[in-house]
Amino acid sequence: MEEVLDMAKLNMVEAINLALREEMERDSRIIVLGEDVGKEGGVFRVTDGLQERFGADRVVDTPLAESGIVGTAFGLAVYGLRPIAEIQFEGFLYPCLDQINNHIGRIRNRSRGRFTCPLVIRTPYGGGIHAPEHHSDSPEAILAHIPGIKVVIPSTPYEAKGLLLSSIRDPDPVIFMEPKRIYRAIREEVPEGDYAIPLGKARLVQEGKDVTVIVWGAMVREALNASEQLKGEKVELEIIDLRTISPIDIDTIITSIRKTGRGVIVHEAPRTCGLGAEIIALINEKALLSLQAPIERVTGFDIPFPLMKTEHYYLPNPKRIVMAVTKVMSF
Amino acid sequence: MGLMEDYHPLKGKMFQILKPDGTLQPDKSPPISDRETVDLYQKMLFVRLADQRCLSLQRMGRFGTYAPIWGQEACQVGSASVLQKGDWVFPAFREIGATLIMGVPLKNFLLYWMGDEMGSRAPEEINLMPVSIPVGSQTLHAVGAAWGAKLKGDQVVVIVYFGDGATSEGDFHEAMNFAGVFKAPVIFFCQNNQYAISVPRSMQTASKTLAQKAIAYGFDGIQVDGNDLFSVIAATREAVEKARAGGGPTLIEGVTFRFGPHTTADDPTKYRTEKEIEPWKPLDPLVRLRLYLKEKGAWSEEAERKITEQAQMEIDQAVKEAEAIPTPEVDEIFKYVFAEMTPPLKEQLQYLKSTL
Q: Chain A within 8 Å of B344 (Cβ-Cβ)?
């Protein structure tokens, strides 16, 4: 009897879970560690079932100590294991910055390759879920500014699995930021088995002749919504999902800018020194004369992320994206 | 174990085998043979001389800022000498003693402090991590590595070195806690040298001893006379054997004294007087071993002269070799950031080269 491979439709949580499960089968060096990742399977259920399958030695409920989780994960990594550490919310990542900046990102360099750190830190990030305080930040620009680490942000379930596989296999440290707003919002076909999406390579979500829109994470969906709204005005958006925040795939961006001459960058993170500024600086260096208009940024603000009653003021939305597109089109 | 119980930190007794006058405590015997004692004394002397040379190299502008071990030789030589091949050491930044005992060439050590990262590239078979400047942060790394060894079933133990100051850092407490929870085969070796730069031990914590902090985390702590090579070895050996047998972590507090400055950029006369330093001079780890060995007929002025001369020649050679290493090419500061240089790094290096 022929077995028909039924490709399941998974959401991002399930896709990440699948990636972890498959990779842990393949590579016995992998240890998953963090608060509540074991018995509970993670507060978002991302690590659900893993401890049952792989045991408490490989899926570990740690004490409540973020620097401790990441610092011991560093030790596991230099010893030769492949730890995947979870920081429960991006808001709790900050105690880890010493370990990330001073050790994790530096060890290969400062030992001239004698010691290396193939570590993945996973953390849910971003707003839009009416969360308590400190549960909605977007610190990707802070992390992108740290030498020696890579920063990856998936935008769909299919992307999440492929990017996570590459992140785990990367011989260097990767911070994998999961847009919690769309953890369950999208369901799509996610293949079983091996498919690794390379790091450092952006994704062309859709082609369009008029404006290049550069986005990542939960903002990809907002850009697509804006694109739908603009169809009526016959404006075509070329949407690029950055996928890897650091290192940025500048070549894909420039190819698009040379074609459209206009750009809009969308990110949740606060405006000042957000990644949008870096991307504009790069476009300035490489394709200034291709531009028909200054590049617009649709961003969060230089304010602490608001509580749920005023969250809607903060987050970039299709309306603001459409306004930005209109602005660059009419420059 | 007997030793840990007898010297439970809340009992207020410091473990000592060899007294400052070079005689043994009653009912105590050295944990090593006379021959081993002579060998380790010579090693401690070498460390002292090499350390002094580092200080003078800095004054001559041939060395960057340097943190001298001066006074703490027994803590490091004693504890590191207990380790086996394959064990790991996580230093702070004052560990010339442990580094040399592990077998790293002096030349490598000098190279690092002369400003070349290549000095931190330990030989392949020696598991010595680079120094850790953020105080106490390395305690977490050591726990992770020890935990990893345990998970893999390797017969490996890990020692992490840090000072009295580090015991106030959050990472130290997180590390101790994790070590207790995961029963990691790690020895926390605290060199209590009485100062964290200028801040004296009395201002660092209200705890009566540092060793007793282990109790809070569910494992053994012991305070030893850090200037007594024998008690350092005995305590470390017990902790190492316990760890290797699956008995988990131990905190050893070695009570010692920092004769030198925090680093060559520090002027200790600003915060301590000769009067404060004087009482520690007769407690010098080399002094008491000398007295002990002399009494056994295993030390003489002449022997000391010969060993010193030999050591200085070796140190001369290491300095010569380290200084002969040319300034690294500019590629060196880019090519080890990742396994494979990323496009931005390639571009940045290309730009930089065009400006040189």
A: yes
Rounded to two decimals, the ipTM of the complex is 0.97
The two tokens of residue A126 are: 């971003």
Which positions of A are catalytic? 135
Q: Are strands B199-200 and B186-192 parallel, antiparallel or unpaired?
A: unpaired
pTM of the model: 0.97
The helix or strand, by DSSP H or E, that contains position B273, with its residue range, turns out to be none
Q: B interface mutation test: which of A82, A98, A106, A112 has the most B CBs within 10 A?
A: A112
Q: What is the per-residue pLDDT for A1?
A: 47
How far is it, in rounded angstroms, from Cα A72 to Cα B148?
A: 9
Nearest CA in chain B to A100: B137
Task: For CA atoms B271, B275, B279, B285, give the dihedral sign.
Answer: positive
pLDDT tens string B267-286: 999 999 999 999 999 999 99
CA distance A227 to B287: 81
A33: closest chain B residue by CA: B144
- Any chain A CB within 8 A of the CB of B86? no
Segments of chain B scoring below 50 in pLDDT: none
Cα–Cα distances in Å, from B64 out to A111, B12, B48, B320, B343?
A: 18, 41, 19, 16, 33
Q: Which positions in chain B touch A31 (Cβ < 8 Å)?
A: 151
Chain A contacts of B145, Cβ < 8 Å?
A: 75-76, 78-79
Shortest Cα distance, chain A CAs vs residue B57, angstroms: 23
Instruction: Considering only the beta carbons, identify the residue of B177, B332, B339 that sits closest to A172.
Output: B339
Q: What is the pLDDT of residues B55-71, one digit of tens each?
A: 999 999 999 999 999 99
> What is the pLDDT confidence band of residue A8, given thresholds at 50, 70 and 90?
confident
Q: How far is B240 from chain A (nearest CA, A)?
A: 18
Of A62, A65, A108, the CB nearest to B336: A108
- How many domains would you assign to chain B? 2
CA angle B43, B124, B101 (to 5 degrees): 10
What pLDDT is recorded for position A6? Answer: 57
Both B264 and B334 in a single domain? no
| C-beta neighbour count of A302 within 10 angstroms | 10
Taken in order of first residue, the domains within chain A and their CATH numbers are 9-189 (3.40.50.970), 203-329 (3.40.50.920)
Q: List the single residue in B121, B174, B333 with the smallest CB-CB distance to A67.
A: B174
Q: What ranges make up the beta strands (E) of chain B?
A: 88-90, 127-128, 158-163, 186-192, 195-196, 199-200, 220-225, 250-255
Range of the domain at B350: 329-356
User: Are B142 and B211 contained in the same domain?
Assistant: yes
B253: which strand partners? Answer: B190, B223
Query: What confidence tens digit (pLDDT) does each residue in A23-65 have?
Result: 999 999 999 999 999 999 999 999 999 999 999 999 999 999 9
CB atoms B344 and A73 under 8 Å: no
Distance CA A155, CA A205 (A): 10
Give the distance from CA A43 to its chain's centroid.
19
Same-domain status, B308 and B333: no
